[in-house]
Structures are given as C-alpha cells and as structure tokens.
Amino acid sequence: MQPLQFLVPLDALEALAPVLPFVVLGFVVLNILTRLLQHRKHAAQADDSDDDAVQRWLPHTLTTLGMVFASFLFMIVAPHGGMVMSVLALSVFVSDFFEFESRRVEASSKSKDLERPTAAIGASVFALLYAGYQSFFFLIEPLWNSII
C-alpha cells in the first residue's frame, strides 16, 4: 500500500496523464499573457502618488500557482519530465516574486520608469519551450527514436 494512496487518487491521475503536459503548457501560456497585462497594470499603478501603488494581480498569481501545481502532478505520472518542468515552474514562481518586489522598489523611488520583468520573462521562455517539447513530443518521436 502506498502512503499517499488516499491523498492523491493515482488511478484518476493516470487517466489524466496524456492531458497533463497540455495543461502545463496552457498554464505557461496564460502565465505569459497575464505577465504582460500585469506589467501594464503596474506601470499604470506606478504613476499614482501612493507609495504602495503597485499591487499583485490575482489572475497572474493564480496562473503561476496553477503552473506549479500542474507540474507537480505531471511529476507523479512522468518523473523525469515532471521534475524538469517543476524546476522550471518553480524558477518562474521565484523570479515572479523577486520581480514584483523590484517593481515595488522602482515605483516607490519615482526616479525612473518601471523596467520589464526580464528574469521572469526568461524563465517563462524556458518553461514554454520545455512544456511545448513535452506536449508535442509525439510529433518528433519517430525522428528522435531513429537518432537516439
């Protein structure tokens, strides 16, 4: 008997295994879109006179957490690919956290414009590439197997 057998329904998760890479890919794409919208909101909020003008945007936070949790679920059904995706998703999460804090500092200093979240964008690009690779591996699998 597995210790987590009653906490995580493994049979139901196995049924969702073919769909999980696409779910992670969807969360990564949504995360990139909400990051663009959040940066626009932060730029507008930074123009306000209040020192605490820059606030977190809930849709972006939800897509980031959804991407992390979906990659953890993917790690249960595909340990190697899920581990790599989880590391990339956690790097997006951590870079989002620090990028938000740096936007708050930039907004409170009022000395310069807000910069783009370059670290979070870079982490998201790597997450997008790997999620796309995991999701669409079936397209390159014959060529991959003939080489490897």
Topology of this protein?
Layout: H1 10-15, H2 20-46, H3 58-77, H4 79-109, H5 118-135, H6 137-147
Helix pairs in contact: 2-3, 2-4, 2-5, 3-4, 4-5
Summed over residues and divided by their number, the pLDDT gives a mean of: 87
Radius of gyration: 18 Å
What percent strand?
A: under 5%
What is the oligomer described by this structure?
A: single chain
Fill in the keyword field for this structure.
single chain, mainly alpha, 6 helices
Question: Can you characterise this structure?
Answer:
The structure is a single chain. This protein has 6 helices and no strands. By secondary structure, it is mainly α.
TL;DR of this structure?
Keywords: Membrane, Transmembrane, Transmembrane helix. By secondary structure, the protein is mainly α.
